[in-house]
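[Solved] Which block belongs to which protein?

Original post:
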Amino acid sequence: MANSLKASRKGLEIVERARRQKGWNKAAEVWCDAALTSKATLKRFWGQQPIQRETFIRICQAIGLHNWEEIMECSAHLIQIPSPFAHSYPGRHQIQNPFEGNTGFVLPEKLPPVRNWVGREHELEALKAHILALDQQANVVTAVCIVGLPGIGKTTLASQLVRHLQREDTLFVAAAWESLSSATGTAPKFDGIIDSLLFTLSHGKITATVTVQEDYSKKTERLVKLLKDQPCLVVLDNIETVLKTRQAEGVGYFADECAEYAWLFKQLMETEHQSKVIFTSRESLADLPRRQTYTLYLTGLEQQAAVDLLCSFNLTATQDELVALAERYQGHPKVLELVAALIGDDKEFQGQVGRFLQDRDWLLIRDIESLIDEGVVRLSYPERACLKLISVYQNSEYPLSYAAIAAQMPEVSEYDLKEKIVLALKRRQLLDYDSQQESYQLHPLVQEKAYRALCQNAETFRIAHQQAYRYFLSIPLKRETEWNDIEDIKPLLLAHYHACQAEDWDEAEKAISVAYEFLHQWGYSIALKDF
């Protein structure tokens, strides 16, 4: 009997009747749990695609169909398995699975633990769909890259992904996990990483003793041969350490001192093989070929998942207070854990979320600031300057446009601002562009960090607010006869605010004088002291 089976059309009709009797949908969580499988595998089952024999049987038995032979395709033993790796390159034919009988790979010894797992279902499914080529319309990729701020959950998501792939019907026969992080923030020695990869993926056959006389090129060649000979899963975590730092024009490119890593990545991505690579990074990789890479830009947890995470800390709070705390930090999981620990451990708060929300009108408690510093330390001087200056804008009050950024950097050419500074901040995940609102966004934690740095220099603080004042005055308004509500004169109000911050009282009065009559008519009591 072949190790892989698929359902017949008649068999699916039997399963459909059993499913309706139980009231389950085609990808019910309870079905997945009972069959010890995933939604992706159930999707392949319903699509009459071959899956592992054991999983096929469990899916049938979980729905109450113990005579699973009635469900399978009678010619199942003749199935040729269309590997997601086999058609990674045009013209390559589907072949019979050479690893028939594989029951899954062993989890890597260095795989990080997964604790307090909540949410991320959509992200997991998207990553699996690309790795396993479930979406026939999508480009078949060699690698997936998870990119995001420090602490946003990249490593945890990758670790959970490996666990899902290990218990599903994948063709991987070996998996390796290597972290490129270090205490100094620089990349670990190349030989140590590649020797470990070779040892793990060869199941201990290729040791450092065997390759001691070989250079980086020969070792890379050995690794690629392993990836050609058998479908492997390779995870490289925290790869930002091999990228250039403190150079705006170099963000996303390999550091000069990491040429060996650059060669390894080039071979992994450009050589034909049947394996898959997972990267995690705090910065986008400009050197990865776009068509062979799927990049997932990881943001905070969805509201309910963030609330569920907070609930695991046994805090005293109403549902509204938990939602408020989750939204304040935009669902950033590591930050929420740090804040929850502070609320629970500090005698001042005694586990009461409401007390914390009333007591703190700032975001950056000390531990969070240290986390943000890990990303900020890699910035060049122009990037730091730009972040500080644009932090004067209140994103929640008015969209942050390119013109607003340019107003803070008048001495920088448009080319250098767009192609170096702004692009660098975007690749570092410190500045995001919202295509729906057609504006840029600063994460609240990054904005507060930058604004604190701005406030340390009184002259720079004053200049930034002056430039913001001039920018808002330059925004065209509707004709006065068309003003209907406060949004129509919002630029004037913001110009007034920034002039007050710069202590340019005459300019502040000019900005508000035009709108004063209308504000009075709308019931607003306006005075300079109100700002």
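(Second protein starts here: sequence line, then its structure tokens.)
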Amino acid sequence: MSDLLKSVKYLKGVGPKRAKKLRKIEISTVEDLLYYFPRTYDDRRHVTKINKCIDGERVNLNVEVCGVGTNLRTKKRLSISKLPVKDDTGYANLVWFNQSYVLNNFEIGDEIKVNGKVNRKYGKIEISNPTYEKKENRNNIGSIIPVYPLTESLSQTELLKIISNAIKGYNNKIEEILPKDLIKALDLYTLKKALMYIHFPKDKITYKKAKERLIFDELLILQLGLILIKKNINHQKKGIKFKKVKEIKDFINDLPFKLTKAQKRVFNEISSDMESEKSMNRLLQGDVGSGKTVVALLAILKAIKSGFQCAMMAPTEILAIQHYQEITKLLDKYDIKCRLLVGGLTKTERNKILKDIKEGKIDLIIGTHAVIQKDIEFNKLGLAITDEQHRFGVRQRAALTKKGYNPDIIVMTATPIPRSLALILYGDLDISVIDELPPGRKKVDTYAVDKTYRERIYNFIKKQLNMGRQAYIVCPLVEESEDLDLLSATDLYENLKKSYFNDYNLGLLHGKMKSKEKEKIMVDFKNKEIDILVSTTVIEVGVNVTNANTMLIENAERFGLAQLHQLRGRVGRGNYKSYCILINEGKTDTAKERMAIMEKTNDGFKVSKKDLDIRGPGEFFGTKQHGLFELKIADITKDMNKVKEIREIAMKILKEEPRLNNKYKKLKEKIICKFKDNIKDISLN
């Protein structure tokens, strides 16, 4: 075992108690410590005198402890610790909140260097929550000090000391993963040098060079892993060569609407793939309401009429049920046997469906993750489709693929992202984009307001209901949480039913309900037997009720922008003027900025771009769902130019050494380690 994989508790200054604290910030090994990067830095090369301190600024002071520290407790049980200090120009107090233990570290006469924010009160100077170093421990005097993200009860001083010990004790044990000629050709720091200077840079140059090397490593490993997954898929045995199918033309002519140019273009791309011997692995991307399902349905018809079975996997039962209802209507005249497979079936019903799938009596199976369970065997699976790809992991998609003999794959997503970014996140797929909405698709007027508008909003909803329309009210929770002051869907439903909307029919929908209950609620809502559907985000994707024209989203600040856009996409599907009202209780500038973009645009690509900028790719995409490892220092939205450059380098490396078995052996080990959850998808043996 590598020395870097040793438990952090054996490191000098850690031990079992601190190791437990470190686990809260996902540090278990020495390597985790070395790769726990600072969030910012304090430049301590310039020292200020006490009499030159300016209110609100961060300063470095060289001071002497000149009195006994005191601990005070406020009525709200807040602990305030004060330590008097001086220099040759004046006096100040160092102040810590809820860190009463800190005073035990000082004695009168101690010389310390501190860094903190100046707070001038009544002519006195306080330095709030300062980091400090005693004279005898000053390893970093005159340097740039890292500031790390922390967990409760772990101080900057503690973590700084621990990481400093890790660098000193283990820097020589860090193994280089890149060959010397590549490091030299690209003018990169060695890995040892990069890890040392990312924590303790000497200046801007050493910091930038260290960061450059670590970003390069992350993006190279990411790119190589995804390219290898794609190569592995594409170099499997031959795929299915589907026929040209005359029914396609009839189907298109029978549709109650015309396909857009974008839909036709994308289906031609899919059709071309299906008619080749290569296994199709294609991402079908399009904004809410762009008509992805119809394009997928054309592919399904082509596969079935070529003599193969199809499977479609949706992330929720509600969406699976809706797909089933709409698809069976459209395929009714084509003698296609379609069945629904969801979790709520009886054992007898399920067993009958499984038997029919195995015997080839079912052409198309639509369901949730139930479709990929081990006991399901297909007779001749030719096409597998996953809807809302961001809800499924790479392994789940691979499990569906393995149900057939190299079936063609389509994955659909309504989370629009820039094409260059999609190439990274879906590196194993070819990409088709429906970049056009059908004519007549209504713009949804969006308004962000605070809770004081609630009564006015309810009156507006009543007005819409009286005109024959229907409405959604969406909450983030099913039941009230003690930790979050949010409206609960169940509580709101009960409250509205008894008060504001007691003359109307209300329905409640959430993920904890049984599938038959959910199905009944959605059927009733579609049939206009329910006026207002109070729901959690289970209606986020795919739900299509053309008479519903108003959506109210409670606690809108709790949702990502892409999710708000998806929810908004449930209205504006019919011929009626549509509205989305966001009740925002977030007070921050970020919350206001997010609401403003929702008010400004209905364009999913613009919304998603803003969501990426604000939240970053990790939270936006849910990297674990994508089968990607977490990026600790690279930012694929900000480092897009680097991404393109490094992709080219990755391709050259694989051309030079396809199996990475010689000079890239250490790099190969790192790829295997990082992609461990998807290692079966990477061909490196």
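Accepted answer:
You had them paired correctly. Confirming on the second one: The chain has 21 helices and 21 strands.
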